[in-house]
Structures are given as C-alpha cells and as structure tokens.
Amino acid sequence: MKIGVFDSGVGGLSVLKSLYEARLFDEIIYYGDTARVPYGVKDKDTIIKFCLEALDFFEQFQIDMLIIACNTASAYALDALRAKAHFPVYGVIDAGVEATIKALHDKNKEILVIATKATIKSEEYQKRLLSQGYTNINALATGLFVPMVEEGIFEGDFLQSAMEYYFKNITTPDALILACTHFPLLGRSLSKYFGDKTKLIHSGDAIVEFLKERENIDLKNHKAKLHFYASSDVKSLKNTAKIWLNL
Description:
Helix content is 45%, strand content 17%. By secondary structure, the chain is α/β, with parallel strands linked by helices. It has two domains: 1-90 and 203-243, 3-Layer(aba) Sandwich (Rossmann fold); 91-202, 3-Layer(aba) Sandwich (Rossmann fold), CATH 3.40.50.1860. The chain has a five-stranded parallel β-sheet with strand order 4-3-1-2-9. Strands 6-5-7-8 form a four-stranded parallel β-sheet. One of its GO terms (molecular function) is glutamate racemase activity.
C-alpha cells in the first residue's frame, strides 16, 4: 500500500516517524508545504485552499490513502479534502481524542491541549472531549513552539523560558495533548517540565493505533520506501528527516 503524508512543514515528520517504524505501508510520499508554514496563524479559507492544492499534488502518485499530519489542517480542511479525494483521508484529531480516552478513564482528570492558535480557535479537541464526558479541559495556544522546532531547538534555556511563559498559570495536567505535530519533538523537555504524572498524547503514535483498528493492514517485514517533497527547500526537509528518522 502506498500512502501520502501531508503537513504544513517539517512537524509532520513526527507522524511519519511513527508510521515508518510501525511497518504498515510499502511506500510513503511525504509533502511539506514549507514555503507557507505555519498554517496555525492563517484563516480557514486559506488553510482549505492550501490543503486542496496539496491534494492536487498527491494525485500524480496514485496513493491509496492520505494522512493529514497537521492538526490545523485536520481541524479546518478534512471535510473539503474528503469531498474531493478518490481515496480515504485521515486527520490526526480523531486519533488524538481516541488516544486520550484510552489513556484517561477518569473523566474528571485534567487535560491540557497545546496547539497553534488556529487549532485552539477551532475547538475541535475541546468539543470532542466534552462530548465524551470529560469535564476538566484547558486549551492553550503555544505558537512559539513551532518556529523553535523548525529551527531545531528542542531543549535549552530558550525553550525553558517559553515553557515558563506559557505554563506559569497552569497546574500540572494528567494528560497533555500535543495537538501540533511539531510538539512531539519537544516531548522530552515537556515531560521534564511537568513530570512523570503527565501522560503525553502524541499524534503519530495515536494515528498508528487508529489506522490499525480501522484499516485491514498487514504488518510488513520491511520498512516503507520513503519519498520527500516540499514547496520550498526540499534539501533542508530531507536533512531534517534523516536526523529525525535515523535514516
């Protein structure tokens, strides 16, 4: 099976890493819209337009499935993509919510959603968790984390200062939903900041489990063949992928 993975930039490589290591697919086409990152500060119509243009890009590869490895795109463009695509299209929000439900059986536990401004504004995580009976949900836009990851800043004083700025009035949550695919790269620092009590919900791991439950996919005895494309500076994207995926 050949699939596509789309993200606004390099953050979706965290999802690609999980998919690659799970050995579910034969071939994976990754496309990052690096010329127009970040999506998290753009309006709904612009996000949908960019995502439909990405869908047109994937048509040339005759993929069997498309994974939207961007929470902002999943929040705003999933319906438009599904209406136009000739193959299944999955976003990461449903998977993230399901992973949270599995991790937290007590619906009074405290959940913190961190994401881009646009994803938080969509309230997609909050609405879905509330509909499942969860009562203690906080949501926080932490947009500065995106350019930090794009610049390769995963730890250190600069990140520590940003975490202290964002989380100064936040009590330690029982679950932290990393509702931007850039954020798993900050997982070690976030875990250190909040401590072992907090469970981190990772979009990549969540979508792997989500697909296993919904698609009839046989485990492969080989890792997928990878192809990387970008709307700008594909060389930089490939170099980042080599580091993140240990290629």
